[in-house]
Amino acid sequence: MSLEDIETRVKFVKIAYYVLYGFVLLFGFALIPFAYFYYEEDDEDVTLGQKVWAGCKYTIFLVVIVIILMVVGIVLFVVKPTEKPTTDNAKLWVKHILDSTGTESAVSFAIASMTTIGFVIWITYTSYGLAALPIGFIRGRTGYSEDTKNLQSDLESTRDKKRAIKSKYLGGKRVSKRDESTLSLLDRKEKVLSRQGERLHSQSVWLKVYAVMKPFLFVFGILFALVSVLLWGSILITSIDKAKNSYKLCSSSSACGFVMKIPEIPNPVDLVLTKSAQFFPLDYVIVALLVIYVFFATLSGVLNIGIRFLWIKLFALRRGASPPQGLLLTAVILMLAILALNIEITTLAPQYTTFGTQTYNHTWVNTNNETAWEMRPCSFDAPLHGVCTMTQISEIINRISIHTPFFGVIYFVATWIFLAFFLISILIAIFRSRKTNIESREDDSDEDEY
Q1: pLDDT at 281
Q2: I need a labelling partner for 229 at 20 to 30 A (CA). Which of 142, 177, 415, 419 fits?
């Protein structure tokens, strides 16, 4: 393949990336917010025009925020970073990375800002999901007979309390307001427990099938736990590598946003992907499986924690009973988590996501005044033109980190917080009580009071 063909493909891939990033901005700041505020006005007395106006009114504010972010990105594009790389080849690579148009810089800055919010999702929902999903498979749910027994016990206890209160007034004595209120609550609770029992009975066949599948789910739980630990360990190794060796690109680690010239401490995921790249498309399959696993782990975190603002629970996702606003916010959460994964994948597999399996012929003069050579993996020490080609995902992320190093510092610190939260999440998932099938099928508003 000629150099012109490679450059043409690189331009095509670059355009595809920025088009997709543009769609992320469109959905994140326009379409989804419009749909959210549209459903917020969902009332019998509100006309279609009023709903549309409400959606547009609040969406315009978010669109203005995107425009401001893009303008800031264009302004920063004009200002070149003062920090210089430490080697000549690295200077050429950094110059190539920073050589972008105003449009590219505008979109990159807007995406970088969204990704900063995405790391909040990554630290909370994703870290908990990566721990809770495999542990949930290993521990399983309570069985049908145990749930039935607990329901029956609660129902009998409720009826006993009702009988005890009513026995106090057998002689025609007037019921006190306090006991009358208690009886009303117990009546409602009895109805709720009865409905729960009916729903549980209607699911008895599926629950028995689930009981048969438990051993297989246990095996999947073990496999998922190994994957989660592997991901955590690989991110930890690269984070340590960045802390120790990222200063070799610039005079300080923070000056270039903790970007490394070349990974010096190999991690398992990076090694597996780099080796499997020789057997195309095996590496693509592995990356796809990892992304799908992280996606479902984040979704598991959302289902377990609920949609919250700090300690305030906004929405709970329930099968067949999730509000439209809750589903829309879930879509935003998952989108932001994938944006954070977009950054973290370069930490997860730094060599694979930057240069893949590419190598170059490194020559030097040895102590005997002879020319020596060896094949080395591509890095910022390699010649720029016609030897190594950087992936677009790495070029975009490195541009963000080097041109605006405060983003690189934020991502680096957020990664360490994620690593710590994962360990905390394991403890929470282990000591948290097992899920019951009754809880997973709660869909009556009255049940929330109990």
Answers
A1: 87
A2: 142
